[in-house]
Amino acid sequence: VQLQASGGGLVQPGGSLKLSCAASGSIFSKNDMGWARQSPGKQREYVATIISGVTNYVNSVKGRFTISRDYAKNTVYLQMNGLKPDDTAVYYCFVEDSWGPGTQVTVSS
User: Whole-angstrom Cα distance, residue 8 to residue 27?
Assistant: First the structure.
């Protein structure tokens, strides 16, 4: 499938954003999907994933980020609340081995 992420932008600390990842085909039979992020000088890290039905979050976002999926819309979401400057990064979605082009999230006052 081809993926297109959207929803990034500039937000103040403490604010919220909801990222969307629209797939060109059905995600119903896909076991693995989620979001990763990469900021300059850092390695890409998995932020939120659904692997074989099990949801996982990196410790730094637990309690603030929520991953979800809508099979009818073939879309994976990442709701991000309580954003911090350290959350600034390019966010990428993936479904199995397919990756989207990324969307920039900047948290700054």
Answer: 22
What span, in angstroms and rounded, lies between the C-alpha atoms of 49 and 31? 10
How would DSSP label each residue in 30-95?
Answer: --EEEEEEE-TTS--EEEEEEETTEEEE-GGGTTTEEEEEETTTTEEEEEE-S--GGG-EEEEEEE
**pLDDT tens, 40-99?**
899 999 999 999 999 999 999 999 999 999 999 999 999 999 999 999 999 999 999 999
User: Which residue type, as a one-letter code, is found at position 63?
Assistant: G
Assigned token pair, 70: 């809508």
Average pLDDT over residues 7-28: 95
pLDDT given for residue 27 in this prediction: 86
The 75-80 sheet, strands edge to edge: 3-6, 17-23, 75-80, 65-70
Identify which of 43, 50, 38, 52 has the alpha carbon closest to the alpha carbon of residue 100: 38
Going by C-alpha positions, the residue among 84, 86, 89, 68 that lies closest to residue 21 is 68
